[in-house]
Write a structure and sequence with these properties.
The protein is mainly α. It folds into two domains: 57 residues, no CATH class; 390 residues, no CATH class. The protein contains 23 helices and no strands.
């Protein structure tokens, strides 16, 4: 038996534990990471770079840029929660919907998707999910349907934007290194994936309405008393709220300016810088709040989620290090490489299925160099393969609660309330959505492969 088989066994066992919910997903991920460390030292199964130690190599597998981005936006969310902003939005949205559960899903889902076009969907969830939880608590309704809808709709909608989904950011960065940034820029994603995503988004919303038809038909209690509330009464510190929102807005503008102005600064650095400025500018009016300000901020950051991502990166990095991901990708190219359209469609489905099991961020990180290497070896046009990867990783992330970082954050935030989202419930909604959206993507690739996805000069 090859020694690397033990790495695969640890990987599979860890994900079984994560999905089974027998123990917390963070503990399961780190349990697997520890076993990989033991395997590395006892069997020497992993390859290290240069003079790097095994521990240094394993740390290099962690996507600290992703964790840095999440941490920065969590700080913004924590400050806004402390000053009452989410409570304000919760009352405002509930009054706009007049307590209608379906309108809540439409408003909040649309709002989250629109945010996901200009910032990544993980950040959008960090901002809007606490609001949703507060709305549902006020209306005394189950928060699972709107929370699930927001995550799935943001995953779907984020596919259309270069900054909307972390895998897209990673693909665009690699394309820029290959001088393909004129194709995989902000406008390139919208032009080539915009209509596809819109159709997929509408189909997703239709399925959610059908699945939650009983919940939608229920009548929330306390609607009348909620409509009489003044949303401004919920804001505890207006100055803190406005200053934080201004800095958040400037941070988002910096995300967009990075591409348009060609700024040589990473997205996570922008997020952490903005969060740092927001902390420096924060001057809570309440002296008691001011004294314990940083303690309250750190209490509201989802440390368990960040640690889960780190463990997940190590698990996927281990599988990639011993060559399993390369083997799978090579099999796809060997099987479907004779037909460029069939190859692109195969990548969509392979990426979707893999992203349903493994978070789409580390999966995309592992697949990009594989696709690049094999396209060079076989003299293939890499652009349709990158577009297929973006579709599959984005849409496939809907299937399970660990399929995308936005999903993980949604589940983590749902655990603050009395109705946490279970793996079983997520799969019932997300798996059919994955099939629906991937079918739409496959049709688009079949019909418009030569026009949209392998034509560098395409303009509407």
């Amino acid at each position: 038996m090859e020694e690397r088989v033990f790495v695969l066994l640890v990987f599979v066992a860890s994900f079984v534990l994560i999905l089974s919910e027998k123990i917390h997903r963070t503990i399961a991920a780190w349990f697997g990471a520890i076993l990989l460390l033991i395997l590395g030292h006892t069997m020497g199964v992993f390859t290290t770079s240069g003079d790097h130690s095994l521990e240094h190599e394993m740390l290099s597998w962690i996507g600290f840029e992703v964790i840095g981005l999440l941490l920065g936006m969590m700080v913004f969310a924590a400050i806004l929660e402390l000053c009452g902003f989410f409570e304000y939005i919760a009352i405002k949205a509930a009054k706009m919907s007049k307590g209608d559960p379906w309108l809540l899903i439409v408003y909040l889902g649309s709002f989250t998707t629109l945010i996901s076009l200009v910032i990544d969907n993980v950040t959008a969830i960090i901002i809007i999910a606490p609001v949703t939880l507060k709305i549902c608590q006020k209306l005394e309704i189950n928060p699972i349907p709107p929370l699930l809808a927001e995550a799935i709709l943001s995953d779907t909608g984020g596919v259309a934007s270069m900054v909307g989904d972390p895998p897209n950011v990673m693909i665009a960065a690699e394309a820029a290194n290959m001088n393909l940034d004129h194709i995989f820029g902000f406008n390139g994603f919208l032009l080539r994936l915009g209509i596809l995503t819109l159709i997929s988004w509408v189909a997703t919303l239709g399925y959610i309405r059908w699945y939650y038809r009983d919940w939608i038909g229920s009548k929330p209690s306390h609607v009348e008393s909620l409509l009489e509330e003044d949303e401004w009464d919920a804001v505890e510190d207006k100055q803190l709220m406005f200053s934080t929102l201004i800095i958040l807005g400037l941070t988002v503008c910096a995300f967009s300016a990075k591409e348009f102005l060609g700024l040589h600064i990473e997205i996570h650095a922008i997020a952490l810088t903005g969060a740092g400025i927001a902390l420096i500018a924060a001057r809570p009016a309440d002296h008691e709040l001011r004294d314990g300000f940083m303690h309250m901020i750190t209490e509201k950051i989802e440390w368990a989620a960040l640690l889960f991502f780190a463990g997940l990166f190590i698990l996927v990095g281990g599988v990639g290090n011993v060559g399993y991901l390369s083997d799978l990708a090579t099999w796809i190219f060997d099987t479907f490489g004779g037909n460029e359209v069939a190859l692109a469609i195969a990548i969509v489905w392979f990426s979707a299925i893999a992203s349903a099991v493994v978070d789409n961020i580390p999966f995309t990180a592992a697949m990009i160099p594989v696709i690049t290497e094999i396209s060079e070896q076989n003299n293939l046009d890499i652009t349709p393969l990158f577009w297929a990867l973006a579709m599959g990783a984005g849409f496939g992330g809907n299937a399970t609660p660990i399929g995308s970082s936005a999903n993980v954050m949604t589940v983590s935030i749902s655990e603050r309330g009395p109705h946490p989202i279970t793996t079983k419930e997520w799969i019932r909604v997300g798996l059919p959505v994955m099939f629906i959206t991937c079918i739409v993507a496959s049709v688009f690739l079949f019909l418009f492969h030569s026009i949209l996805y392998s034509n560098p000069d395409f303009t509407p």
